Amino acid sequence: MLFRSFVLIYAMKTVSVLTAVLFGCVCVHTWAADAYPNRSVRFIVPYTPGAINDFVARLTAQKLTDAWGRQVVVDNRPGGGTLIGTDLVAKAAPDGHTLLLAPTALAINVSLYPKLPYDTLRDFAPVTQIGTGPYLMVCAPPLAAKSVKEVIALAKAKPGALSYASTGSGGSAHLMGEMFKSMAGIDMQHIPYKGLAPGLTDVMSGQVSCTFGTMVAVGSHVKSGRLRAIALTGNARSKAAPDTPTIAEAGYPDYHATGWWGIVVPAATPKALINKLHTDTARLIKQQDVRDKLEVQGVDIIGNTPDEFGKFIREEITRWARAVKASGAKPD
Fold first, then answer.
1. Helix (H) or strand (E) holding 318
2. Where does the pLDDT of residue 231 fall: very low under 50, low under 70, confident under 90, or very high at 90 and above?
3. CB neighbours of 61 closer than 8 A, spacing ≥ 6?
4. What's the predicted TM-score (pTM) here?
């Protein structure tokens, strides 16, 4: 009887201790979220400054800086097809003070590279998808084609005579071109470039027939008449270019390829910090001034939950894996 009483008292004390520990952990996590951020935050962009990736990151960073009273510093870490900057975040301290601007390449690279220095699904925790936007298929004004059907007709009349530029093997523009070729049943030469500028120059001069680019990258050239907008790569028209049809509208309903941008953090980041970061970011990017600045660049605001963004990333990995396999793309 005495032994049973002792066991009961010991068990009650153990439960009390465990309860206190668990309560303490909850309190620590709550305090950590309330105190976050307690210093400047690095926002890693795995690209060079400029273009849409940088634009999205800097606009988001400025809003977070204003809201938190702590500096959110955009840190451009290009190289390795985004692997350098991405790996830096994968191995960063999981304290919410290092963020990654996660682009479409995060999903593409899973299939493009035979071995990554990180595991995309294991080493990152999704926070929110900031936005998504279609690319524009643009052609040289001298090209005798003003629509998707006319481009296809030219390509079928002269197999291999038409070409399209990209920023490198396995990049978004390359895969979008290969998807277009496959669905249309045509042959176009892929011309990879080391960067966007030289490719656009050759398209505008007529040396290369077409390319695919974001509205930030090609929009001004379309307005000036140096490039001709043929179609959008998304499955719906854009507010930024309401008169430009989609490739899907031309009779290829399964064609859907867009760029997207979001925030991910190291996988071990406490859930409380992820939730705070998500709540603050989603609220700020949905403000009208942010929406206006992004929509004019062809970016539609998303601001979904961490779980929704995680599901989206998994779906994108599957979608782009098919494109990489069909194209036979290899990293440069």
1. helix 306-327
2. very high
3. 43, 72, 73, 74
4. 0.86
